[in-house]
Amino acid sequence: MSRDEDVLRRILEAEAARVEVSPDALRSIRARTERRPRWFSLGAVALTAATATAAVVGAFALIPRESAPPDPRTASTPSWSSTFSGTSTANLAIYYVGDDQGRQRLYREFHHLPMRDTSTVTKIGTAVTEMLRPESAHDPQYASAWPTGVRVTDVSISGGTVTVNLSKAPPSTIARQELVWTVAAVVGGDPTVKLLVDGSQYATLRKAPALDTLAALWLINPQHGETVARDVSLHVAGAVFEATAHLKVRQGDVVIDERVLTLSIGAPARGEAKLTLTLAPGEYTLEAYTISAADGSVQHLDDHVVTVR
C-alpha cells in the first residue's frame, strides 16, 4: 500500500468511527423510503454518491503534496550574502582603473571566484566585492578607484534594474563606471544600476561610451602572473586607428618576437585579434601597444608577465 493510500484509509476510518448508528436504523430507513416517491429514492442515491465522492476528494485534499516550483514571474530575488557554504565557482569579469596615456581608463580581468551559489545576484555581489577588495587586481598596474573598506550590503534585481547597496559613496566618476561595467559584465547589455549608500538612494547609473571609458588597448589573455603551456594563446582587444596594433615578446631585455596585429575592426569600434605563439619554458613579458603616426612613440601599452612551463 502506498503512503497516500494509507493516509486516505486512516482518514476514512476516523470519519466512520464518529458515526453513531441506532439499533433500529435499518427498519426506520425502510419505512421512510416506502412512504416517499421513487424520484426521491433515486435522488437520495445520487446525493449519497455525490457526498461520498466529495468525502473522498476532501480526503485527498488533506494528503500532503510536493511543493510546485516557484513562478519566475512572481518569485522573489534571493538576497546577497558575502558568506557561502557551497563549492560553486565562476569566472567573473572585474574592471579596474589604469593609466592610458595619462588618462584614467578601465581595464578588465577575469577572476575565478568561489560563491555560495550561481545565481545572478550572487555573481554580481561577488564581482563587486572583488572589485572593491584592495590590491585584488592581478596586474599591479591596475587598481580599484574605490576607497578601502567599502562593503556590498545588498544586491537585488527587478526587471532591467540592478540595485546595489554599498556602505560608502563612489569617490569619482571613474569609480562609478568601474561599478557599472563590472555589474554589466555579469548581466550583459547596458543595465540600469540603482546605487544605494547605506540604504538611501544615491544615484542611477548607466555605462558611459566605451570609447571614453575603456582603455584603448588591452591584453585579455594570458593574464598577468598566469602560468601557461608552451603554445601560448594570445587575445588582444581595443579601439585603435586602422585596427592596427603591435605585439612584442621579451625575455628580460631580449626581444623574442615582434609582430603587427590586425584587429577585426578599427576605432571607434572595439576589435579583437587572436594568435598562438610557441615559446620555450621561462618567464616572458608580453606587450600590446600602438605606434603614434605623428612621432613613432609607443602608445596605449598594456603588458603582462607570464610564465611558460
Topology pattern, helix = H, strand = E: HHHEEHEEHEEHEEEEEEEE
Oligomer: single chain
Largest sheet: 5 strands, mixed
**Count of discrete domains:** 3
Structural class: alpha+beta
How does this model look, in words?
The strands form 4 sheets. The protein has a 5-stranded mixed beta sheet with strand order 8-14-13-10-11, with no helix packed on it. The chain has a 4-stranded mixed beta sheet with strand order 3-4-5-6, covered by helices on one side. Residues 11-78 have low confidence and may be disordered. The protein folds into 3 domains: 3-61, no CATH class; 88-211, no CATH class; 216-308, Sandwich (Immunoglobulin-like), CATH 2.60.40. It has 309 residues and is of the alpha+beta class. The longest helix is centred in the N-terminal third of the chain and has 24 residues, at 38-61. Helix 4 packs antiparallel against helix 5. Helix content is 27%, strand content 36%. It contains 6 helices and 14 strands. It starts with a helix and ends with a strand. It has helices spanning 3-17, 25-35, 38-61, 120-132, 173-187, 210-213, and strands at 88-100, 103-115, 152-158, 161-166, 192-197, 200-205, 217-221, 227-228, 231-238, 244-251, 254-262, 271-278, 282-291, 298-308.
